[in-house]
Specification:
4 strands; 90 residues; alpha+beta
Length: 90
């Protein structure tokens, strides 16, 4: 018999500041009682855009190191994707 893991993800956008700024936030709830809330905001800047990425992680005892390393990898990957999407063509 296989193991089924269901992770609940909620994502919402805050369009109030468009087109000068935007904010997206969400929360992830895993079956292992790992909770992660995150958000990123993009603000117009004279040189392009400034993106602020925020992550809050809550875990049961003993899982923090592993969950933090996984979350860090996701943040670095998202930074690469956002940089590619937001970069101005030369």
């Amino acid at each position: 018999m296989g193991v089924v893991c269901i992770t609940d993800v909620t994502l919402a956008a805050v369009p109030d500041g468009l087109p000068h700024s935007a904010e997206i936030f969400g929360e992830v709830r895993s079956p292992g009682r790992v909770r992660m809330s995150y958000g990123f905001a993009s603000d117009r800047h004279e040189a392009g855009s400034v993106v602020t990425d925020t992550l809050h992680l809550r875990t049961p005892p003993g899982l923090l190191g592993f969950a933090a390393s996984q979350a860090g990898a996701v943040l670095r990957a998202r930074a690469r994707v956002l940089t590619g999407r937001l970069a101005r063509p030369v």
